[in-house]
Every structure is written in C-alpha cells, then in structure tokens.
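Renewal narrative, Specific Aim 1. Our central claim is that a sequence can be written position by position from structural information alone. The example that follows is taken directly from our test logs and has not been curated for this report. It begins with the structure tokens describing the chain, in the order in which they were read.
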C-alpha cells in the first residue's frame, strides 16, 4: 500500500516502511472516513487485537495490530498521511530545534511521544510553551 502526503505539496506517493519493507505507521492520531475499504481495516484491526493475549507480562499493543491489518487490506484501501510539518511526532518536534524553528507557525498538533508518564509529558509541554 502506498500512501500520499495530504496537502503539503508532495504529489509523490510515500510509504512509511519497517525493516521488512512493510508499511508501518504510528497510530497515535488517525482520521478515518467510514468508507468500505477503511471499515475493512478497522475490522481486521479488531481481529488482530482479539487474536493476541493481553496480560500483565504480555503487553500487546494496538499499533503493530493496526499495521498488520493495514498490510493485509492494502489493495482495498486508499489513504493519505498527514503532513509532518503540521502534525510532527515528539521525537522530531522536541528533539530538533532547527526543524522546529524552520516550521514555526505551521504546527497543528504535536504528538508528545518519546517520553513516558503524564507528568513528564505535561512538564515538557510547559517547557516548550505549549
């Protein structure tokens, strides 16, 4: 499955790939219109989650399950990636001052990831004036 960047002037198709060449996307923020193909992804995602044992020692998570479902249904789905400039991950936004400065004023939502704990996340937002 190839995904296009939506609305940031990139007409080429792009895909986020894992080390095995499979599409791998972060599931922190999804906007999904209820088309037939996208409903298929959700149904497959649910199957993937239900197929794993969730225990204190085996903390399965939804992101790998989503990506397995996405790769299974790739031929049935058309999708877009949100532009990184407007929707950066925490690793990029908080870890790259030059990028943050170059794109200032264009951020819509910043994913406060790559840090653990509510209090830590809140403090980092405060440190960056967010």
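The sequence written for that structure reads:
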């Amino acid at each position: 499955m190839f995904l296009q960047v939506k609305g940031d002037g990139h007409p080429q198709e792009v895909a986020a790939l894992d080390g095995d060449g499979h599409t791998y996307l972060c599931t922190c923020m999804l906007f999904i219109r209820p088309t037939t193909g996208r409903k298929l992804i959700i149904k497959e995602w649910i199957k993937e989650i239900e197929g794993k044992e969730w225990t204190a020692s085996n903390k399965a998570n939804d992101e790998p399950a989503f990506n397995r479902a996405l790769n299974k249904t790739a031929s049935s789905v058309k999708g877009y990636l949100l532009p990184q400039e407007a929707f950066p991950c925490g690793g990029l936004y908080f870890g790259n001052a030059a990028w943050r400065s170059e794109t200032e004023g264009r951020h819509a939502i910043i994913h406060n990831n790559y840090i653990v704990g509510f209090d830590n996340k809140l403090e980092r937002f405060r440190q960056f004036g967010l």
